[in-house]
Design goal:
With 336 residues, this protein is mostly helical. It has 14 helices and no strands.
């Protein structure tokens, strides 16, 4: 008799990219770049980060951005959740040091609270839940644009020396590697926008490949510095518990808070999914610039939170799709 291979649970999103990220970390642990190879990987990682932000700028549609301004209340709500409520909760996590989180993990936890929201997964889950998809598209786009400027500024103000020291040279590096390529992409959009649209799938692979290179470089540097000896299984468990609480708080605040602000069901769904997420694609390149050799430990909380939000929001999206009626009381809808 043939034995059936058990399928993964329906609430667990089968994302090959997550497997690729994990594989990249394992590769960096087994075969970290060192010596001349580390210099080459570091230079390639720097170029990949600049390329990512150039493509972000070139892809941004001015027409879509202007169209989305009609929902300015919704976008301000999402931005407030992403760059005000999240950072405040991140600051509150300082009370967990040193008994729950180590200072290094707490810095990474705070950093994940400062990065912008996602675009792709916010749109996907909003669509599944039958929410306001155009609003989710614009909210995610505005958050990504704002994050290019706000995340480094918030990190400089809130992380201090734990972010690698924000000297004039560090801020200049941020401008050269992040802001300048983004502006260049915006200026060249009219000339290369058509090419980018025709080769969207290939450029998507370039995006993901660039992020994998950043992850490999960061974790190779972490192996060379020996920082992984500072992370015990108990610390990882405590970090996961803290992130579960953070996600539950944000999912609850965005759903019930949007209700109190008078938003309809479709808008509340968009606010919940766009306002409770954090972008791995934006956060990893920024961390490589902001944290330098400490980036591997700094991005660990973000990578764990990213996978957690995918699994939890997959459950919520399907339940929102099933209830499908505004008359359902929010107290009866599970949030986590």
């Amino acid at each position: 008799m043939s034995r059936r291979i058990p399928k993964p649970p329906s609430w667990l999103p089968a994302d090959p990219y997550i497997a690729a990220l994990i594989g990249t970390i394992v590769l960096a642990a087994l075969l970290p770049a060192s010596g001349a190879a580390a210099d080459v990987a570091g230079g390639a990682s720097t170029g990949a980060v600049s390329l990512l932000f150039f493509l972000y700028g070139a892809r941004l549609s001015t027409a879509e951005a202007l169209e989305g301004l009609r929902h300015w209340r919704l976008h301000l709500t999402v931005l407030a959740c992403t760059f005000a409520v999240f950072p405040l909760l991140g600051l509150a996590s300082r009370g967990l040091v040193p008994y729950v989180l180590s200072p290094q993990l707490q810095s990474g936890f705070l950093f994940l609270c400062l990065v912008p929201s996602t675009i792709q997964s916010s749109i996907a889950f909003t669509s599944i839940a039958r929410g306001n998809v155009p609003a989710a598209i614009c909210a995610g786009s505005f958050s990504s644009i704002a994050g290019i400027f706000l995340t480094p500024l918030l990190a400089a103000a809130l992380l201090g020396d734990s972010g690698g020291g924000f000297s004039g040279d560090a801020l200049l590096k941020i401008g050269v590697q992040l802001l300048l390529p983004f502006v260049a992409g915006r200026l060249l959009r009219r000339r290369i926008g058509g090419f980018l649209a025709r080769h969207r799938r290939i450029l998507g692979l370039v995006d993901r490949g660039s992020i994998l290179l950043v992850v490999y470089t960061a974790f190779s540097e972490g192996m060379a510095a020996g920082i992984w000896h500072q992370v015990t299984p108990a610390r990882l468990g405590a970090l996961l518990a803290a992130e579960a609480v953070l996600l539950a708080l944000m999912l609850t605040l965005t759903w019930h808070g949007a209700k109190r602000l008078g938003f309809g069901r479709a808008d509340r769904i968009a606010i919940q999914f766009a306002g409770s997420k954090k972008s791995l694609a934006s956060g990893l390149p920024m961390a490589s610039v902001l944290f330098g050799p400490q980036a591997s430990l700094a991005v660990l909380p973000l990578m764990l939170f990213h996978q957690m939000q995918l699994m939890v929001c997959a459950v919520i999206a399907r339940r929102r799709a099933r209830d499908g009626q505004e008359a359902v009381s929010p107290e009866t809808v599970p949030v986590v």
